[in-house]
Amino acid sequence: MPMLSLSWLGFWPSGASPWLLLLLAGASWLLARVLTWIFAYHDNCFRLRCFSQPSRRSWFWGHLGLVQNNEEGLRLLEDLGHFFLDIHVWWMGPLHPVLRLVHPMYIAPVLKAPASVVPKDMFFYGFLKPWLGDGLLLSGGDKWSRHRHLLTSAFHFDILKPYMKIFNKSAHIMHAKWRHLASQGTTRLDMFEHLSLLTLDSLQKCIFSMDSHCQERSSEYIAAILELSTLVVKRHLQISRHLDFLYYFTSDGRRFRRACKLVHDFTDTVIKERRQALTAQGVDNFLKAKANAKSFDFIDVLLLAKDEKGNKLSDKDIRAEADTFMFEGHDSTASGLSWVLYNLAKHPEYQERCRKEVQELLKGRGTEEIEWDDLALLPFLTMCIKESLRLHPPVTVVSRRCTQDIELPDGRVIPKGNICLISIFGTHHNPIVWPEPEVLSMPLPPPPP
Ligand code: HEM
Questions:
Q1: Is the dihedral of CA 405, 406, 409, 413 positive or negative?
Q2: For the ranges 55-69, 307-321, 369-383, which has the lowest average pLDDT?
Q3: Best mutation site among 132, 147, 229, 395 for ligand 1, i.e. most ligand atoms within 8 A of its Cβ?
Q4: Which domain of life is it from (predicted)?
Q5: Ligand 1 within 6 A of 339 CB?
């Protein structure tokens, strides 16, 4: 009778071959990894059972493709909102769950957790990385905390106040363009296009003190930013282009690379010239010259920023922050403004009240300049802007990855390792938070006497 033998493994009779031993060790390691992964996957599924789930498209696709990144998609989310009022699980394919949070009570513990516990999730933000680098939007952990602390001074009111002149001027340029187009018989405008140029024009002046006249003629730099924004959105929608090495073979990938280089070169040149000026003049003279010219911009803030230990930002850090502000500042604001105009057009009675409020404010001034202190004197317009941002938030979702368990107020726990999608749109349209969320929830006050 044949004996039970390990000779097929090379253990017997002539001793173990090192290659076979290596193979065995490798296979055992792989098996252990697979078993650990299967165990972790099942454990995670078990722990997620306390959260409700909309029915999946299929076991393979999960909820992928169910919600398109368009108006119908948002409408579907609105409908789902009536059934899933706090947190629900969404499957991106058969293996990747994400939790969608649509209630402030459950969002708070996630957003209040330290940045190192809930870093931003690169699955959703990763495509911006080659362009924006480690700026505030994409950085995490200690780097984010340090930069956030340094940059908070950039938003001090004293620094923001002089920007009002820039905003007024950009708005006047846009209005002049509209008047000209109207006088030529144009009756339709793509608002988002015009407002994007307005916000980019303003930002380029606030960040770099540069005027490219991009609202009146084409600018290579501004065109590159618009192209990058479009390409990032497009890439999100094409799963076949998610892998870098495939994407950069496509014509879109090559356009992305070219535009990225152009934008980086522009920012690098400004930083280099400014640093040279700072070194040549010394900090005091540099600041005096800036104060006289009233041209203290965001690059200056970044160049001069230092922490308690005297550490400053490197040129690479400054570029990342400046590029981040150009992107984050233009797209969301242009979208927010477009929706404000849309809502005011849909509700002429509110539009009229806003117009009256501004006219009252400017009465007898002989100027159309809105000043910093005026902003607090436009309560009705402010309410309209806020209500428009509620109904149509420009950023519909932000994502975080939980590196530790997060306990929720009702005792349930978000298991560590999961991605949380904090749905700003879902929260703004949640009927528990806003009774009748689709209705403009703003009473029209009686007109002034
Ligand atoms: C209506 C206008 C705006 C909306 C709706 C908006 C929305 C948002 C949201 C939702 C985030 C959070 C992203 C996340 O945590 O994952 C964010 C972050 C950020 N936004 Fe905006 N934003 C607007 C205007 C601006 C402007 C004008 C600037 C700059 C000029 C700006 C710069 C930034 C930066 C730097 C971050 C990253 C902050 C950090 O993580 O510390 N945003 N914005």
A1: negative
A2: 55-69
A3: 395
A4: Eukaryota
A5: no
List of residues 6+ apart from 56 with CB closer than 8 A: 62, 63, 91
Protein residue closest via CA to atom 26 of ligand 1: 329
Between CA 356 and CA 53 the distance in angstroms is 48
* The ligand 1 atom nearest the CA atom of 207: 30
Ligand 1: which of 317, 328, 389, 420 to mutate, judged by most atoms within 8 Å of the beta carbon? 328
Distance CA 291, CA 296 (A): 7
Helical segments of 48-70, H only: none
Q: How far apart are CA 17 and CA 11, in angstroms?
A: 7
* pLDDT tens digits along 296-310: 899 999 999 888 888
Given 3.90.226.10, 3.40.50.300, 3.30.43.20, 3.30.565.10, which CATH number is that of 49-118+394-449?
3.30.43.20
pLDDT digits (tens, 9 = 90+) for 130-140: 999 999 999 98
CB 338 within 8 A of CB 191: yes
* Closest atom of ligand 1 to CA, residue 203: 30
**What residue ranges in 243-302 does DSSP mark as E strands?**
none
Distance in Å, CA 159 to ligand 1 centroid: 18
Ligand 1 nearest atom to the CA of residue 125, by list position: 16
* Distance from C-alpha of 402 to C-alpha of 416, rounded to nearest angstrom: 5
Q: Mutual orientation of helices 220-237 and 315-346 as an angle, nearest 10°?
A: 80
Does residue 119 have a cis bond before it (omega within 30 degrees)? no
Query: Of all helices (H) and strands (E), which one includes residue 278?
Result: helix 251-293
pLDDT in the model for residue 3:
46
Taking the C-alpha atoms of residue 386 and residue 408, their distance in angstroms, rounded to an integer, is: 28
Q: How far is the CA of 239 from the centre of ligand 1 (A)?
A: 26
